[in-house]
Amino acid sequence: MKMSSMGRMGWVLWVVCVAVGSVGAQERPLNVPPEGFTALFNGTDLTGWKGLVGDPKSRAKMNPEQLAAAQAKADEDMRAHWKVADGALEFDGKGHSLCTARDYGDFEMWVDWKIEAGGDSGIYLRGSPQVQIWDTARTDSGAQVGSGGLYNNQKHPSKPAKVADRPVGQWNTFQILMIGEKVTVILNGEIVVDNVVMENYWERDKPIYPTGQIELQSHGSRLYFRNIYIREIPREQGANTLTDQERAEGFELLFNGKDMSGWVGGVAGYRVEDGVMICDPLRGGGGNVYTQGEYGDFVLRFDFRLTPGANNGLGIRAPLEGNAAYVAMELQILDDTSPRYRGWLKDWQHHGSVYGVVAAQPGYLKPVGLWNCQEVIAKGRQITVKLNDRTIVDADIEKASTPKTIDGQDHPGLLRPSGHIGFLGHGDQVEFRNLRVKRLD
Questions:
Q1: How much is the CA Rg of the chain, to the nearest whole Å?
Q2: Which residue, of 52, 134, 155, 390, has the fewest CB within 10 Å?
Q3: Residues 356 and 384 placed together within one structural domain of the fold
Q4: Is residue 76 located within the same domain as residue 215?
């Protein structure tokens, strides 16, 4: 997707409020999660929570008896200083942090929070500090930058992009997405942390732990939390195999799940991990990779997984040089639910669209972090795109571009009879697996 006016597309969190209303908003009953989420707080008691015992390193050194004794003492402290009132967790500012009873890996989390004047708190992810919460009117510690930043980062950005806090005493809503080492934070609908590596505070020479508890930080301030929801994101590997039926029908694999064999172009911008082809922004921004072979009429099937706000494209019948959106066809691969695009995204820029030529029907992408299945059928001038078993494009591109394309631009390669198949990286991480193709010509 070509968006030069915005520069490099960062990762932006998938916004479920489009479908269900703001998770933390008053339209929903208190502490009742939307579909796909689980409530971490039931609104009535401290079930599912425990007191804080040390840090990950110190806990790992304890034997079972020591840990049990320390946990019993921490739970006693929890019950003395954390309570439930009016459907919210309240902390009196005198005890220690509150922790989830179990660990989490990759997830999307929603939480409403409120502080008092001079307040200071945070949310630990996988047991590591922290997504910052504080009163922005404070004159110490740099609080004026706003809440939501990854406060303890040293190498990677630690400050939020903007101040999005509501006045002290009012409820705020965090939307946090953590996949791998990277964290995205939206505060009250504003992107404040955009796909930033969260560093391991406890062991600076190591990446953040793959799993860990979520903690509501005690920092000597009265605190309030409610509407705490989580959606776990499974870590799946690529299978990269053909079914018996596909084998019988003549499909072939385009990706071996081990390396970039069979692909040309900007392969240095991609890596292979756990059977998945990853467009990696840390390797020069991704770039374009193409099949060595050329294809005219075909059926292409593949799985893809988006990161927040991710922007990529599928080039078909493309040459190896030039902008595939114009010298061939580019089918959008885009997290079009991201708030980054709200209010200006054109119909022909939604996921699955033939860029600038045919608008796809939106609304069938799975939430960020989950795998989507897509099928593209190119047969002469007819282009069909199916996303998660829903047809989102079925159009004759010659008719769709006559007398002109809907973007008003020239697409001189639109009617090319054949060419390469490629992924068109735009500086964001997007993952692919199970790539298979069947020639129709």
A1: 24
A2: 155
A3: yes
A4: yes
